[in-house]
Amino acid sequence: MRMFRRGPRRDPRDTPRDPAFSFFSVDEAAHFRAQVREAFAEHGLEVTLYEGAVVDNAGRQFGLGNLAAVCHNDDRGPRAWGELARRHAAMVLRTVDGPSALDTLPPAQIRAQLYPRVISGEGLDAENFGYARYVAPGLYELLALDLPESVMMLTDEALGQLGETERLRRRAMDNLRELPVEGRETVTGDEGMKFEVVVGDSFYTASRVLALETVVRQTTGQQLTADGALVAMPFRHQLAFHVIRDAGVVPSLAGMAMFAASAFEDTPGAISPYVYWWRPGVITQLSQKGAEGDDEVRIVVDDDFQEVLARLTAQEPPEGGRR
């Protein structure tokens, strides 16, 4: 997994952009949607194209957001979009046309493949996911069933078939803690800036913020401090963190804010462009975007975090930093 995702050079950014997927020009979006239509047609399914989705004759809607981001980020450029669209259409149709995993998998296997997943609250269907647990401003936790080709987000109705929600969540959290760390990169900079980035192909890499103590121990061999950590979950395959120990928290916060905003852009499975303060039982947002049209990232801290900053900056500077 690359830390910063950059799409290949294509049409210049001053070319008219597609209203649904601004990382595409109008012409690129037309090519992308033509590839999608053709991919579904090869499977005998005629679909109607809309800006962000396709709908078949039975009224089934298939979103295109993740596929569009995958195409945008593929280094091969538009020549690969047909292949990616065909693979996506085949996977989607196998999933929706086949029997439900909830009906075919034994209960023990279902429990072994349960994971909590942190998602953006944008577009969350409260009618079907009433059990969604608040994590932080704009972020929620759902339970998901991990399948070979897809991830099934479990609705209220599905959970009702499996048992008591809190018991299922405890099992899902146990499964999350047992995931291996696929990759780790350390980002360093001036004034003692330093943070870790856990990366991986797992759809639950960013969701490991829910088990941060385990991740910190696995990757650094250390424990979290009483002051907690800075965390960022720009998209599903990345989790960044900085354990708060000294005045290095100041440059690290600034660096992570820029990192999160950059890594969030145009990515499949986007979660949040912000940095948060993690403490047991509470996650507080620390960064935010400027006004519309303003790309600047702003840091906004509350009285509790300001007290932490004041106390740590009054101490000795971090190793490698300057006063």
Describe this structure in words.
By secondary structure, the chain is α+β, with helices and mostly antiparallel strands. It has three domains: 26-97, no CATH class; 101-177, no CATH class; 183-313, no CATH class. The protein has ten helices and 15 strands. The strands form four sheets. Strands 8-9-11-10-12-13 form a six-stranded antiparallel β-sheet. Strands 4, 5, 6 and 7 form a four-stranded antiparallel β-sheet that branches. Residues 1-20 are annotated as: Disordered.
Question: What is the total number of structural domains?
Answer: 3
Class inferred from helices and paired strands: alpha+beta
Number of strands: 15
Please report the number of helical segments: 10
Biggest sheet character: 6 strands, antiparallel
Helix content, binned percent: 25-40%
Distance between the termini: 36 Å
Averaging pLDDT over every residue, what do you get?
Answer: 90
| Structural Rg | 21 Å
> Which residues sit in consecutive blocks of at least 5 with pLDDT less than 50?
1-5
What is the strand content? Answer: 15-25%
What is the general shape?
Answer: globular
Sketch the topology as an H/E string, one letter per element.
Answer: HEEEHHHHEEEEHHEEHEEHEEEEH
Reading side by side through the largest sheet, how are the strands ordered? 8-9-11-10-12-13
Question: What is the compact description of this entry?
Answer:
It contains 10 helices and 15 strands. The protein has 323 residues and is α+β, with helices and mostly antiparallel strands.
